[in-house]
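Researcher: We're teaching a course module on how sequence relates to structure. For the next exercise, students receive a sequence and then see the predicted structure as tokens, so they can try to spot secondary structure elements on their own. Here is the exercise chain.
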Amino acid sequence: MDPGAPAPLTVATLTSGQGDRLLRSLDGRRPEVTVTSSPTTEYAYDVVHHWTGAVPARPTWTTTKRDLARVDVSFLHERPGPALESRFDLWHGWTAGNQLAAPAQGERTDWVDADTSWTQSAHLPGEMGQSSLEVLRYAARSTSEVTFFGPILRPRMGELDLQPVRYLDQMYVRVPGWGDSGSGHLGSTGGGNFAVRNWAALYQGDTELQWSNAEFLPVTGLPDERLPYRVVVDNDRAGWTGTYSTHTRTEWTFTSGATGPDAAEPLPLVQLDYGIDTDSAGRAARTARLSVTPSHLTGITATVGRPTVEVSYDDGATWRRLDLTRDRGSWSGRLSAPKGAAFATLRTSVTDSEGNGVTQTLTRAFGLR
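Model: And here is the predicted structure for the students to work with:
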């Protein structure tokens, strides 16, 4: 399905029995027929049932509201348009599901089977795709919120085949550069958006060991001893038009040595998640509260410290340090945007208890209203 090129004419199909009944009801008349087409839906049901051993003679089951969870899905791309969304159930390592047309900017209410393992993704054809960082499970009769495409776009790594690791003398650093706000999704432009520039490099000291113009950086031939390294990721919209996260630069510092042959070890790259309320056009109030949550991926035992967050309202010409307070594992502070400022640029840095750190600059991370 390509939502960017919908069919010029809506086509509805009938079974032969339905067609016969329709023709008989017309009784030789040729009335005017009005067709209303809804390319996207305001609601969706995702229900699934598995049988073990064999499919019964009557493969039916009953699901009630007591068995379902409500998921309010928001698509927060900065401009309206077509998108695609998928929710697949995970069963014994297999996934299955359907892809739906969705609005790039809009809302939908979903009802999904509780106590089922799910994955979810959404795509803007020709631009980018975002997918869940982990397997999703919802409690029956619960209500959850999911957003796609909204600010703040930035590099975000995950654990479903996307965790940076060291094995023997090799590093495999996956650096998808376009995750959206919060901690739920990673995002990538993939190989289909050639207007964007994704660049990554690994340094040992000031020596560049390897670089890549994709969102994956494999490096081999590293020395066995434990040494300091830097991963630098530079993402630029270049010819890919868009208002927010026009340029992002993230630099991770960490130490690493050769692993044994038994297993790979995760790299201690501190992740940064952001949260801020914006309208459908990606704009926040001038005194909105911005939250920052630094964390490690699974397998890292170091403790992440207090971040430093600076905000610029003039594209980085001047900076103001945000006064942060602790809030359930996150740190948050209130903006103080001057009159006339249209965007907020962010610069965040943090280190962990073992000296691993990250510095991230997001140019025009979100708008201001």
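Model: If you want an answer key for the exercise: The radius of gyration is 24 Å. DSSP finds one helix and 26 strands in the chain.
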